[in-house]
Every structure is written in structure tokens, then in C-alpha cells.
């Protein structure tokens, strides 16, 4: 007998033994249980045990009506399932907050109404405890909002009525006016046009009640740029508008009637300063912050007796027999014999159920997940004696004294074509003794080159980087940190001490690629504020003089993982499979380890509004990279798990906190309410953007084979915060990559390798990313 046949035989023997035991158990049950009318004594006992039965049913998995006062004084009445409110119910907190509506596994889910002690109400759709969907909020002082919500925030189209009589009708994003909208003041003056971060910004029209109007561009609530002011008599003023008098210029055109020679454009700014945008009321306590007392209940109880529809009581049977009829014993009153056909059918049913149970037990089950081992702070501090100490000094001197410190502020983001000329570079000599323009220093003499300095200054302004903070981060008293090993390309990486910026040495070919695509890159990031493409802040070169004429080119980028959240897992995703696993053993993997495509064991689910924005932006970014003939880029993803036990085990969303005799029940952990408190903070929401600090759900997956890119979903979810962006965008499809593609295609599947044509790479990248990051249903 072969080994495989032996395993099959043993499996069958186990199944047979379990089947025989099940038959004996069935005979015992069927031979002793009889069904009889309920007596008065039984009815009395049932009434006395109503509360116990109601409590015990939570462990059975049945949906029933419950009414109970919880240990902390909260009150709930409504449908109940498995220790949680489930279905329709009413929950009253001791502080006076109340929710009436639909529940799902202890969370407000579906349609409902939430009320505050102040008299404020929200009526509409909920999702996972949040105000999410279409709903109406009415504040205690009269503010109202009707429209779309995402995770407690106004997001999408909505109409906001303020208590003072003002009304806004338009688009919202993260609780602020964004894109197109109309704001009408109580005196009937109104603005219609573009908004940004809750301020009038972009192109729009302001109309006063006296008939005059301004059509043009705005910034921070005031005219800025080209615009036209018109009076109701037909006269108008055309020009460039600015709050700085020296930048203001234009021409007045009278209507042919009486001229308005005393008018001053400053009057418009003075008048507009009286028209304030209301901020509205602040919701102090959000529905998702209300903790349910029942969530901490994990007490297991014995299975109760069930009451049938005609009032009789049945014993607790094994789940496999719950749907079967009850037979009495041969001698019992009302008994019925089991004929041979029934017995044969019963045997077949038992065999099928037990075999399915056994087969299910043979399937591999996911190992409980734990928080990854925390890694040390990345990088080695570059101190005196380090091999790159002088290079760091040269870099800091060049940036502080030339690239940032000596440059004038950017006035306009509209750049001339000449600013992008690759020949637009500045060389500066830094001798140790110093010059009129450079300070003395302790390093050897070097030359410093800035590439396209005006463009990168404009990029830093576009990315809202303060020049003083930028210079302090890179050139402050704290030294840079060099990552422990160079990248696959041979480049070295350096981090600033505050983790905000990353400095990477690059090859001459990469420098040429960046300069070639710089104009297109500038236009792209300017057109798409939420682009996921890595942010570049500077491109420089240090030329060491002396016997070794060495040039070191480096680019300064934003550090994607500079976040208030600790990053527990990091993934570098390309959408290819060849060589896309980490080469480290499990014992060496920690929170700093960069994992790859075949190491990924999650599907990430974003809220609908965020997901729609995500797919639009990924499409735009990939189209830009494809047009620039760029390939081999990655989506770098960082994951922060929001809930874990003290022992380090990850807690799936919706699961009760594990409690037992071997665990410290009083030990603190990061709860859902704690996280919601953080996310409800407006300063915290300001840090949430596409790709940055995004709340999401991660569904665990299992692969059927080692080379399957996306595993099968398991239904096991974890609440996470995601950070992601597109990196490594300086590799074009040059002759070396074409040769690499040709060589590897002979040995491997051409679709599995990374070096492919940019068009194919873009399509494959998007297909993969849209499979692992999807919409949350």
C-alpha cells in the first residue's frame, strides 16, 4: 500500500468512527426524547427564566428581541444576535445620546437617527458606526446640512444652511467646501465658482445686491490674477488684481454715461472683507465615538432551551440535528417508530455532514496574525569619521548657502520655458577658506551645482514647503542618517533627522531622465493636487576637486512614511511576479522590511468616495508616466494596524477583545473609540489626503500557489491606516531595459518580468493595483 493510499485509508477510518459516534448519539437522543404538551409548571418555569434565556440566546446565533439595562447604565431595546445589537433597535446612552435604527453586529449600519442631548439630530445612512451616505444633520442652534457624508464628514454634494441665514450649495471634501459651489449670504449677495479647502479659490463670480459683480480669479477669498469688475450701469474695470498695491494694474472703461472717477479697486477688497464664510457648528461627540457596553461582553454560556412556535420547549440539540423532526421512544407517549427508509436517509445525512466536517478540518486555516516586530530607527547617523561625512557637509553647505538661502522668493508659479532648460544650472565654488559668497568650512574644496533652481523653488512652493523649515531639516544641527545598505541600483539613501525628507544619490542617466521630463512633471503635479507621484524638491550635484574628480548627483524627495502613525508593514508593489519576494528569512523581518508582491497577503478596501478618487488619480499618474516612457515604478504602501491586544495579536474588525484566564483584562489597548477620537480631530483630518493617513479595511487573503499574485479573500478584516505613493519614476525604457526584457523573456514568462514596454507596464500595474486596493462594500 502506498503512503498516499495509507493517508486516505486513515482519513476514512477517522470519518467512519465519527459517523458511528454520531449514529449512537442520534439513537440515544431519538430513543429518549418525547414531545408532550407544555404543563402549567413548565410555563411558570419558562417565565421565571425569561431573562436567563434572553441572555443565553446571544451565544446560540439566533435573532430575537431583547430589552436590557447594561452594566454601565446604558439601555437597549430591539433585535439582538450573538451578544450584539443586530437588526432594528434603540440604544440610549447615559449621557443622553440616543440612536434608533438599523444595526449590524453591534455597529450602526443602514438607516437610522442619532440624537444628542443638545437637541441636535442626524437622520440618514450609517456605515460601520459612522455617518456615511446620504443624511441630514440639524444642529442645536439651527445649522442644517443635507447631502453626502463619508466617515462623519461632509464629503460629496450637499446643502448647508447656517444659523445666520447664509446657505452653501455645492461640493464638499473632508468637511470643507471644495471644487464647484454657490454661497449665498443673508443679504442675497452670492458667490458661484471654485473652492479650495473651504475658501474661495480659483475661477468664480461674486454678485452684489446692487447689481455690480466681479468675474475672474480668486485666492483665499479675494480677487487674485486676471479679472473684471462690472457696474450695473455697464461700465467695467479690467486688469490684474492683487492685495499688494504695487502688483495691481488695470484699465477702467466707462459706459458712456456718468464716469465713476472716484472709484478705487481697493474698495472691492474692503467690501469683500465684510463677507465672511461661516464655519458652522462643531459636533463635539460623533456617533462612531459612542462605545457600546455590550462590546466588552465575551461571556460564554450554555446553550439554552428553545421555545417552539406552539409554546413547547425543546432540548438543546447538536446543530446538525436542529432542522430534523423529533421522534419519541417506542414506549413513550406519542412515540413514532423510525422505519428502515427513514433510518437509511438519516444515516446518509449523518455521513454527509460528518464527512463535510472532516474535510473542512483538513483545510489549512490562517494562523492568527501578530504585530510585526518593531524595527530600530532606520539609518546610521553620519558623524565625524564616517566615510560620507564630508559629502554630507558639502550637501548641507550647498543647500543652506546657495540652493535655498540665497534665492529670492517665488512670485508666480507660471514659469517660462527657459526655466526648464537642462543647461539652466549654476556652479558655485566652495573653497575651505571661504569666498565673498561662501563661508569657510572644514571640508575639502568642492563645486556645487543647482539644476533648474527656479523650477524646484516653484515646486517647493507648490508643495507648501516652508524654505526655513526645509533648510532646517536638511542643514540643521542634527546630522543626516544613511540607510544601512544601498538600493538595488547602487544608490545610497539618506534621511533627515525629522524623517521629512529623503536624499538619494542617482546616476547620470537618471539625472537626464528627470531633466527631460521636468516640464511635464511640473505641469502634472500642478494640475493634480492629489497626485500619488513622488514629490521632488531639489536636484543637485557635488563635484569633489583634487586628484579624484568625482561627481555625486542627488535628488531630494519627500519621505512617504513620515507620518504620525507607526508603519507596521511596508510593501513595494509592481504587479510582476518574477523575483518579487523578500530575500530575508522570517526571523529577520521587522516593521522596516520592504516586502514585495508575492509577500502581500491583504486586499485593501477604501471608502467609496476615496476609492473613486484613487482610481481616477492612478489612471492620470500612469498615463503621465506612460507618455514619458517611464517603467519599473512601484506603489510603495505602508500599513498601520489600528487595533491589537497587549500580547501583540491583531484584532479583526467586529471581533470582541479576546479575554481569558491567561490574559490581563485590565491591560490597555488602542480601542476603536480611541482611534475615532483621533480621526475626529480636525487637525488630524487635515493630514488625511489621498495616499496619506487614509482609514481603510484590510481583508486577509490566502494564496493557493506560491506564484499567485492575489490570494483568495478569507473574510477576516482589520482596521488599518494606509500610506502609499508611486516611487522610482526615473527609469525609462532604454536600450539596457530592452536587452534585459529580451534576455529574461527567453528564460521566463514575459508577462512575469518587470522590464517591459511602458504601455504594457502601465496596464499591468493598474490591473494589479485595482485588484489589491478596491472599494469597500
UniProtKB/TrEMBL annotation:
Residues 39-53 have a biased composition (Acidic residues). Keywords: ATP-binding, Kinase, Nucleotide-binding, Repeat, Transferase. GO terms for cellular component: plasma membrane. It holds the Pfam family MORN. CDD domains: PIPKc_AtPIP5K_like (cd17302). GO terms for biological process: phosphatidylinositol metabolic process. It catalyses: a 1,2-diacyl-sn-glycero-3-phospho-(1D-myo-inositol 4-phosphate) + ATP = a 1,2-diacyl-sn-glycero-3-phospho-(1D-myo-inositol-4,5-bisphosphate) + ADP + H(+). One of its GO terms (molecular function) is 1-phosphatidylinositol-4-phosphate 5-kinase activity. Residues 33-63 are annotated as: Disordered. This is Phosphatidylinositol 4-phosphate 5-kinase. Residues 385-773 form the PIPK domain. SMART domains: MORN, PIPKc.
Amino acid at each position: 500500500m502506498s503512503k498516499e493510499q495509507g493517508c486516505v485509508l486513515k482519513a476514512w477510518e477517522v470519518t467512519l468512527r465519527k459517523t458511528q459516534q454520531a449514529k449512537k448519539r442520534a439513537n440515544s437522543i431519538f430513543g429518549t426524547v418525547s414531545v408532550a404538551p407544555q404543563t402549567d409548571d413548565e410555563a411558570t418555569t419558562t417565565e421565571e427564566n425569561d431573562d436567563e434565556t434572553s441572555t443565553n440566546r446571544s451565544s446560540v446565533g439566533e435573532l430575537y428581541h431583547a430589552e436590557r439595562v447594561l452594566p454601565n447604565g446604558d439601555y437597549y431595546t430591539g433585535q439582538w444576535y450573538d451578544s450584539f445589537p443586530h437588526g432594528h433597535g434603540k440604544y440610549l446612552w447615559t449621557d443622553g445620546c440616543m440612536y434608533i435604527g438599523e444595526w449590524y453586529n453591534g455597529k450602526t449600519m443602514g438607516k437610522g437617527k442619532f440624537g444628542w442631548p443638545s437637541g441636535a439630530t442626524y437622520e440618514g445612512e450609517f456605515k460601520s458606526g459612522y455617518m456615511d451616505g446620504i443624511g441630514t444633520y440639524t444642529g442645536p442652534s439651527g445649522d442644517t446640512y443635507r447631502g453626502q457624508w463619508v466617515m462623519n464628514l461632509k464629503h460629496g454634494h450637499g446643502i448647508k444652511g447656517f444659523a445666520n441665514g447664509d446657505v452653501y450649495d455645492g461640493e464638499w471634501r473632508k468637511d470643507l467646501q471644495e471644487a464647484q459651489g454657490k454661497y449665498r449670504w443673508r443679504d442675497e449677495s452670492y458667490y458661484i465658482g471654485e473652492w479650495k479647502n473651504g475658501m474661495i479659490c480659483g475661477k468664480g463670480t461674486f454678485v452684489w445686491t446692487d447689481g455690480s459683480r466681479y468675474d475672474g480669479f480668486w485666492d483665499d477669498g479675494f480677487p487674485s490674477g486676471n479679472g473684471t469688475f462690472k457696474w450695473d450701469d455697464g461700465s467695467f474695470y479690467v486688469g490684474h488684481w492683487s492685495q499688494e498695491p504695487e502688483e495691481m494694474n488695470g484699465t477702467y472703461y466707462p459706459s458712456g454715461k456718468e464716469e465713476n472717477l472716484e472709484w478705487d479697486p481697493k474698495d472691492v477688497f474692503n467690501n469683500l472683507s465684510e463677507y465672511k464664510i461661516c464655519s458652522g457648528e462643531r459636533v463635539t461627540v460623533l456617533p462612531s465615538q459612542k462605545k457600546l457596553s455590550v462590546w466588552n461582553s465575551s461571556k460564554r454560556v450554555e446553550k439554552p432551551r428553545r421555545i417552539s412556535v406552539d409554546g413547547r420547549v425543546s432540548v438543546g440539540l447538536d446543530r446538525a440535528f436542529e432542522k430534523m423532526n423529533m421522534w419519541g421512544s417506542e414506549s413513550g407517549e406519542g412515540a413514532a417508530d423510525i422505519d428502515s427508509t427513514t433510518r437509511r436517509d438519516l444515516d446518509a445525512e449523518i455521513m454527509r455532514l460528518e464527512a463535510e466536517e472532516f474535510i473542512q478540518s483538513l483545510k489549512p486555516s490562517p494562523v492568527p496574525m501578530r504585530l510585526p516586530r518593531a524595527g530600530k530607527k532606520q539609518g546610521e547617523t553620519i558623524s565625524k569619521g564616517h566615510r560620507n561625512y564630508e559629502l554630507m557637509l558639502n550637501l548641507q553647505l550647498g543647500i543652506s548657502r546657495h540652493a535655498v538661502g540665497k534665492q529670492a522668493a517665488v512670485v508666480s508659479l507660471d514659469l517660462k520655458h527657459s526655466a526648464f532648460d537642462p543647461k539652466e544650472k549654476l556652479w558655485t565654488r566652495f573653497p575651505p577658506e571661504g569666498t565673498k559668497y561662501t563661508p569657510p568650512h572644514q571640508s575639502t574644496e568642492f563645486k556645487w551645482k543647482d539644476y533648474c533652481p527656479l523650477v524646484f523653488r516653484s515646486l517647493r512652493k507648490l508643495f507648501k514647503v516652508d524654505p526655513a523649515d526645509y533648510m532646517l531639516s536638511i542643514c540643521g544641527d542634527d546630522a543626516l542618517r544613511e540607510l544601512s545598505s544601498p538600493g538595488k541600483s547602487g544608490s545610497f539613501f539618506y534621511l533627515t533627522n525629522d524623517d521629512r525628507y529623503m536624499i538619494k544619490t542617482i546616476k547620470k542617466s537618471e539625472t537626464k531622465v528627470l531633466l527631460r521630463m521636468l516640464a511635464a512633471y511640473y505641469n502634472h503635479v500642478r494640475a493634480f493636487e492629489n497626485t500619488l507621484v513622488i514629490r521632488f524638491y531639489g536636484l543637485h550635484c557635488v563635484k569633489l576637486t583634487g586628484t579624484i574628480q568625482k561627481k555625486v548627483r542627488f535628488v531630494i524627495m519627500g519621505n512617504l512614511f513620515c507620518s504620525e502613525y507607526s508603519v507596521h508593514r511596508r510593501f513595494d508593489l509592481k504587479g510582476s511576479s518574477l523575483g518579487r519576494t523578500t530575500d530575508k528569512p522570517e526571523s529577520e523581518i521587522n516593521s522596516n522590511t520592504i516586502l514585495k508582491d508575492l509577500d502581500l497577503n491583504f486586499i485593501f478596501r477604501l471608502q467609496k468616495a476615496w476609492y473613486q478618487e484613487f482610481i481616477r488619480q492612478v489612471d492620470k499618474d500612469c498615463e503621465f508616466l506612460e507618455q514619458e516612457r517611464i517603467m519599473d515604478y512601484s506603489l510603495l504602501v505602508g500599513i498601520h494596524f489600528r487595533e491589537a491586544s497587549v500580547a501583540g495579536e491583531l484584532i479583526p474588525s467586529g471581533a470582541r477583545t479576546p479575554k481569558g484566564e491567561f490574559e490581563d483584562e485590565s491591560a490597555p489597548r488602542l480601542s476603536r473609540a480611541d482611534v475615532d477620537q483621533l480621526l475626529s480631530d480636525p487637525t488630524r483630518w487635515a493630514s488625511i489626503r489621498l495616499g496619506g493617513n487614509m482609514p481603510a479595511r484590510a481583508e486577509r487573503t490566502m494564496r493557493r500557489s506560491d506564484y499567485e499574485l492575489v490570494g483568495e479573500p478569507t473574510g477576516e478584516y482589520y482596521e488599518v491606516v494606509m500610506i502609499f505613493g508611486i516611487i522610482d519614476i526615473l527609469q525609462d525604457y532604454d536600450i539596457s531595459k530592452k536587452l534585459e526584457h529580451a534576455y529574461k523573456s527567453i528564460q521566463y514568462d514575459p508577462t512575469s518580468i518587470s522590464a517591459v514596454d511602458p504601455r504594457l507596464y502601465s496596464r499591468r500595474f493598474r490591473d494589479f493595483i485595482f485588484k489589491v486596493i478596491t472599494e469597500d462594500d
